[in-house]
């Protein structure tokens, strides 16, 4: 072991010469060290890194006697047990920690005031997207320590970083992608055996496997059409070093940039050029020139980069097979490859097998590689840019250059990356635990302290100016305990309560007429209490509303009005997840006069569908585009593997709303034609095929009056050809439900029981219901079959008749003794519809280990110039979760309805919603913070939208647009 003195000036010079895994030892003179917390990473599912390893934690505890608290995580590369064995305390609560370490940004809602936080905050450059986070550090009196600012005082070189591991993973992923690209072109190569970096347990495993692949290259080579294979590498920092280290695991030969033309043009198919990969390391000297032709003058280049241009497309790219870009680039400097340059390369027949893949490890959006228009993900790492028509594609079917633009590459090698990072961070953490924040290196790494920006960062106040006054007001609100009245205790309320209580300083009163249900809900949470609610008792409602800061009504829509009127009377804001009814809309002026906001449609559909749509619409309009088409689909369904009944549908609550929705009238516009459908004909006018995703067998129904949303979304009716909102179901649903309707099973008029109209009667079993509902003498199969065949006007052997009979048989309506309830259920004011709902609810409920699914899909077409279209798509597919015993933990429907409603309450409490009256989340002040909070949800609560934008011509638009395919 090596013992180092506690002076960082002595520590840092030797860091670079020590192995990454070697611990550092210090002599501690402090008797009361600061405590340390290590938070669980929750930005995305791939983030498995940790800022310190268990070995470092063990050493820190032994040498300082500090307490280390670690949040539990099954995702972290180091297990909870390994930290516990090292002496750490495993706990959710990090409030006991003085210093809290993480890797990525911490969600604002999870920041604990008056702490020291260490992370990559992405704030010190004045990044707009994290301005509110920076302001929160000030508001909450947080000392912010940013890893990116840990630099050598003499050279200003970063001392703590992951760059080399980005290079490792980026090169491995690029090689993996190149193997796929070559295969798509009809060439099997040894590279097809290389996996993504995350598929290997360690970096040593990566290198070992590349050695095996290298032997295949040596023995069998590449197809002669592809030779010679040339990897071009840009950059000179740690990223480039990582790239080169991976490259050198394969049989290789380095060549000079000036030799590329001779190498490629002189190639004659000889095997000696095919059993290795040629590598070329390029610097700006090789491709940057002054406009006019003279060589680069670095002093002038730095001072006036606009005088220079890139010749990469002439000197390097025509001879490159794969480009691994690790270049550090700043705006204002020449792009090394613009889209026109790529088009010139791609259009040259000589370059058919050149520039196949770009692994843009730097991932500067619209940066040094102009075709990098987005960051790809580890889950979906590649997209394809066809420079010939300037279009992007998600697969290789349409040709083009393969792009890899993952922006969190080090997470693919979490073990080595964490050990390497931790070994360099450890001396700094030791200093902080000793409370030596005045140490020069530690001090200059701090951005905020004592509710102020450090002097060297005061220029960032300018980036906070737009939110400063708002944040001052929010901080006052946030420091006091807020009281939320939640009306309702049904299925969607658990995620709502969970989210709100995670925000701190919130107490929730659960008001319900079902006390047992409410108490069961409250039992899982602190800071909750249960109160009885009778919405017909105005005095009681006023008493409850006046005692709280905000009301959230998750009651049936017909019961909102009592609470809304009381909210206006008592000047309390309110949130619901329901459509704005005519009665609710009539309260708009009263709510404005009272100075309150009643935020409606804050759930799933309506709710986050509005948020996602308006984000895209406003962005298009901001760029001068015209919205030509809007199509939206949404459905709450069983997961595909659990859609195992005749309707392909299941119920977690009363089916009545679902059944009656199939009889609503509808109005929409599709490709210039306005369509109106009477409610009695909605089911027979279903869309038999809704091709959203290849893996789903969807059909759909038009959803109410789509045309009303033209004004709701601020669209121009004269510019629109399509305006459509629909409900998704699995194929076969509408036809079977239409059959039920034809048979009278959806009849909501009173039932005649034994020849008399009665207010109260008993249904003994499903067979008896079948007899009376279908008006037949018995529920025998042949009798029921005759009735169904006759009513549907079809032969007895017709598939539709068989489907109905199969459904009846599964419901227990044919030769069944299934009893509707244990005591022969009694129904007050019964209808055929009510009886059928009872049967469906018993027979089509979710079973153990079954989960639900929510699918949401928007397609928006915009035109910027005649014939120049953009096809925007935004989709969300999420599933419910189940407990280990097979019971439901949380449904997807509950999550996607409850959490948005909770976020709506949060942003109102935080003072972000200034508009008064009856509103929906189509306002930017509502949808923008809502989507931001959704992005910051913990992984187990994630609601993830997948957005794409493709430039298309009219012919491709017709081929790809859902509107034209319906």
UniProtKB/TrEMBL annotation:
GO terms for molecular function: saccharopine dehydrogenase activity. Residues 37-169 form the Alanine dehydrogenase/pyridine nucleotide transhydrogenase N-terminal domain. Residues 216-405 form the Alanine dehydrogenase/pyridine nucleotide transhydrogenase NAD(H)-binding domain. InterPro entries: AASS (IPR051168), AlaDH/PNT_N (IPR007886), AlaDH/PNT_NAD(H)-bd (IPR007698), NAD(P)-bd_dom_sf (IPR036291), Sacchrp_dh-like_C (IPR032095), Sacchrp_dh_NADP-bd (IPR005097). It comes from the Eukaryota. GO terms for cellular component: cytoplasm. The keyword Transmembrane helix does not apply. Gene3D superfamilies: Dihydrodipicolinate Reductase, domain 2, Domain 3, Saccharopine reductase, NAD(P)-binding Rossmann-like Domain. SUPFAM superfamilies: Formate/glycerate dehydrogenase catalytic domain-like (SSF52283), Glyceraldehyde-3-phosphate dehydrogenase-like, C-terminal domain (SSF55347), NAD(P)-binding Rossmann-fold domains (SSF51735). Pathway: Amino-acid degradation; L-lysine degradation via saccharopine pathway; glutaryl-CoA from L-lysine: step 1/6; Amino-acid degradation; L-lysine degradation via saccharopine pathway; glutaryl-CoA from L-lysine: step 2/6. GO terms for biological process: L-lysine catabolic process to acetyl-CoA via saccharopine; lysine biosynthetic process via aminoadipic acid. CDD domains: LKR_SDH_like. Keywords: Amino-acid biosynthesis, Lysine biosynthesis, Multifunctional enzyme, NADP, Oxidoreductase. Transmembrane segments: none annotated. The keyword Oxidoreductase applies. In the C-terminal section; belongs to the saccharopine dehydrogenase family. This is Uncharacterized protein. It comes from Smittium megazygosporum. The lineage of its organism: Eukaryota, Fungi, Fungi incertae sedis, Zoopagomycota, Kickxellomycotina.
